[in-house]
Amino acid sequence: MAFSQPAETKKNVLHKADSRGKTESEWLVSQKTFGFVDYYDPERIQFGALRVLNDDTMEAGKGFGVHPHDNMEIISIPLEGSLEHEDSLGNKVVIKSGEIQLMSAGTGVMHSEFSKNEDGLVKFLQIWIYPNKKNVSPRYDQITLDKTKSKNKFQQILSPNPDDEGVWIYQDAWFHLGNFENNIETHYQIKKKGNGVYAFIIKGSAEIDDQKLEERDGFGVWDISGLNIKATSENTEILLMEVPMKIN
């Protein structure tokens, strides 16, 4: 399976925040960068191995009941509030802002996610990555980030190596988070040839390779060796997701 370029000469794709698919229920507002469940756009199925990027807001005390997953690497990044996670591996934990959750679904796992807050919303990013190994034993991981490591620079929060910083997954992917003051410039170097990078502006604004981006915009780039990034407002938070553009 491979990500198809919209045009032969085009090496990037821009997804403005207001162009995302939006679905609402009584307890959940979900803004979807890529097609998922009841949102479908044939031009927005995935970015290489990045299959799902959902920006979810969940009502207090509500959530996803027990449901199954298999052969997918699922990452949750709480932005506000806290989530209560329970799964068939025996985990019953709470994740909150400043933490990262990873679930390698492998041969199959059942889980639920509910808002822990009885009096406030929960906002989180739900991200799915296609694995490079199928039918592995399911695995759960959760870490607390040292936010001093992402001040005006990118902090690695995910990689393919269990010995590296952050959680690890079954894919040649690297995630980084950075919090930047206005006008701070930095460079991101691709970790593996053939990978692309999908940047998501969590808050603030930035210029990435001269592309102006605002809050919740997404920008994917491939066939590159690196990216030049400049924050254009105070308290700009950026998530970089480097993933293979071709997957088996």
Automatic annotation (TrEMBL):
Span of domain Pirin N-terminal: 21-129
Gene3D superfamilies membership: Jelly Rolls
Annotated transmembrane regions: none
Domain Quercetin 2,3-dioxygenase C-terminal cupin residues, every copy: 157-243
Pfam families attached to this UniProt entry: Pirin (PF02678), Pirin_C_2 (PF17954)
Annotated InterPro entries: Pirin (IPR012093), Pirin_N_dom (IPR003829), Quercetinase_C (IPR041602), RmlC-like_jellyroll (IPR014710), RmlC_Cupin_sf (IPR011051)
Family: Belongs to the pirin family.
PANTHER family in alphabetical order: QUERCETIN 2,3-DIOXYGENASE
Protein name: Pirin family protein
Organism: Chryseobacterium camelliae
